[in-house]
Fold:
Amino acid sequence: VGMANDNMELRQRNLPLRSFTMPESGGILNVGTQKSTLWVEAPLVKEFDLKSLAPSAWPDDTESIEAESDETIYELRRYQLKLGYETVPKFLELYRTGLPSKLEAGNIDPSTSLATVLYTEVGSLNEVVELWRHGGGTAAMNRSRKAGRGADQWRKAISSIADLAVSFQATIHRPLEKSPWQ
Structure:
């Protein structure tokens, strides 16, 4: 963490994807890997007016960003799907169909928002990632998950998505001190 914070300015200038987080749980800690993966934001990012991961969507001046809470976490939900040309489009259509009911479900924590949905074009193919921001930490995440489970259209969509998935992994990331993702 210290090295990441010490080199934050250099990383901010050189990387288009500036999450600057460390896995809190569910990830592989202290393991360095190098692989090539090209992620593409799904069209539903614009359709639902999500924050997006484009560098222009985040402020350049990290000093001016005030954290909603020092408990802010990001929940990275990763789906590895079955092989096939139609698998990712089918996933995205099911997700797009169910998402409004989840977002409108009662008792979603007000600090929770869907940041983006990505899928792979290069690397480990047929992988989809959804990234949720929970400004109120794990308590906000748990409240929002519980509320989402009560949304009928979302439950139907996830049931169908489960049939497309080979595996699923969720990790929690906490923004580093100077991250624009507070």
Observations:
- Helices lie at 2-6, 8-14, 44-47, 87-103, 137-149, 152-164.
- Strands lie at 21-25, 38-41, 73-81, 112-122, 127-134, 165-175.
- The radius of gyration is 16 Å.
- Residues 14-18, 27-34, 55-69 have pLDDT under 50 and may be disordered.
